[in-house]
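Box S2. Input/output pair 1.
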Amino acid sequence: MICEICGTDFPCTADSQCWCMQVPHAIPLPAGEAPGCVCPACLERLIRRSRAGEHVFQEPV
């Protein structure tokens, strides 16, 4: 799988056994189309930014 943010190749099983399913649900996903997969490092950055009060996904126009 290729990260939608940084382009890094990372393992993804795209099911309930994937590494990302072990991460606590820390940020809401945007309404509408779901974002693509992101690598562990980018997901961690998104979580930190969200906890700092930043908007991590653009609102639909």
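Box S3. Input/output pair 2.
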Amino acid sequence: MSDHEMRSDTSGKPRLVGVFEIRLILGLSRQRIHQLADRPDFPKPFQELAMGRVWLEEDIENWSLGQQPGR
């Protein structure tokens, strides 16, 4: 799946992302995503499901824009 395909949503609904998609957006490991998710400055999950936490893609992208290299 290309980066463009992952982010496009023609329905107009907010796109939800899990750890797998956040890995692709941020280019980090699953373990690092879990560490970041526990930090107070990381976006709060939109919902906690049986499969795990999900976030609004826009929140993750906005958060990543404010981060310094090396995170």
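Caption for Box S3: Helices lie at 3-7, 19-26, 30-37, 57-65. The longest helix spans residues 57-65.
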